[in-house]
Write a structure and sequence with these properties.
By secondary structure, this protein is α+β, with helices and mostly antiparallel strands. It has 13 helices and ten strands.
């Protein structure tokens, strides 16, 4: 130990008493291998060895310094007034204690680290849990309000939703015909290349799925795909995930999102193509709804190469679905929905 080696040649006079009945006698004090050696000054014979780690100072801060070889009640004492030796004993004593293992300190460090990890994990988990909970318990009115906010953003980029009266009446009946749900489909006067499901059972499509298409099966197919996507990825949860933890807390506590919480979300939604469900899931849903999958597949890839499974396994490839998605007259009215009319 460095502290020991630095003082091993140090000697100083002292006064030693072996016991309560013994007389005080002069000794020479030297530092040994983690010990204090008390020797007779005349014969140089060792009289006592004290373990430095066990040395206890009985009068801290006073001179002469009085030490005991162990507990304070020990009857053996040593008086030293040499400041250099006193300093040496204190430094060596501290160095020996510092070199000892500290299992309690290690345990404390491990406990503190574990607590820190738990806190960090909680900080990472809690925001997501709050967002999911807010989406899960949101009543229909809140969902529709959020969906309307997103629709307003989309409209600002694409134009007012198409609402020609005759076409709107047909559009109102379309979801019930193909999905059996009370969803509402909204047509925007632009090209969206697919349908997007919004909170509140709103499904947005572009006029590209209506005007210029030969049959309503294209629009119907994209609406069905959006419906399936919304089953796996709740549009409300995705919107709240974008809005963030604080916005979700505000929704839970006040019943509405703070102003600007969804700013830019409409553009983000349109910047990515809508997810496409797995072919087997799509085909089962198309068959259930009585909608051919080939028109939908061809709208995704006119060459048919990347959607061959949807074309070859079309449930109505060789048989008639029975009831058409829309009558010819209804389809004509729907194709003209963006020709004019009051906003939705």
């Amino acid at each position: 130990m460095t502290a020991l080696s630095a003082f091993q040649r140090l000697e100083a006079p002292g006064v030693w008493r072996e016991g309560p009945e013994a007389r005080l006698r002069d000794v020479v004090i030297s530092v040994g291998d983690a010990t204090l050696i008390l020797s007779d000054p005349l014969s140089e014979q060792p009289l006592s060895h004290w373990s430095l780690p066990a040395v206890t100072r009985l009068n801290p801060g006073q001179l002469p310094a009085i030490y005991a070889p162990g507990a304070p009640e020990n009857d053996e004492i040593l008086e030293i007034d040499d400041e250099l030796m006193i300093s040496a004993i204190e430094k060596v004593h501290l160095a020996i204690r510092a070199s000892r293992p500290h299992p309690g300190r290690l345990r404390g460090g491990l406990v503190a680290a574990a607590v820190a990890l738990v806190v960090l994990a909680g900080m990472a988990w809690i925001p997501g849990a709050v967002v999911r909970h807010a989406a899960l318990i949101a009543p229909p009115a809140q969902r529709e309000a959020v969906g309307r906010q997103i629709l307003a953003q989309l409209s600002a980029s694409t134009g007012t939703p198409c609402a020609r009266a005759a076409g709107s009446a047909v559009l109102d009946r379309l979801p019930q015909r193909i999905t059996g749900l009370d969803s509402r489909v909204i047509v925007l006067p632009t090209t969206l290349r697919g349908a997007r499901a919004l909170p509140g059972k709103l499904i947005v499509i572009g006029n590209d799925l209506v005007a210029g298409q030969d049959t309503p099966d294209v629009a119907a197919g994209h609406i069905l795909a959006a419906e399936l996507t919304a089953r796996d990825a709740d549009p409300m949860a995705e919107a709240l995930d974008y809005a963030g933890f604080r916005a979700a807390v505000t929704l839970l506590t006040r019943g509405a999102l703070p102003d600007g919480a969804l700013l830019g979300y409409g553009e983000t939604l349109l910047s990515h193509p809508p997810p496409r469900p797995a072919d087997d899931i799509l085909l089962a849903r198309f068959e259930e709804a009585g909608v051919a999958s080939t028109p939908y597949a061809r709208s995704l890839d006119p060459t048919g190469e990347s959607v061959l499974g949807l074309i070859e396994a079309d449930p109505f490839r060789v048989r008639n679905p029975g009831e058409p998605v829309l009558s010819d007259g209804e389809w004509v009215q729907l194709q003209r929905i963006c020709d004019g009319g009051a906003p939705a």
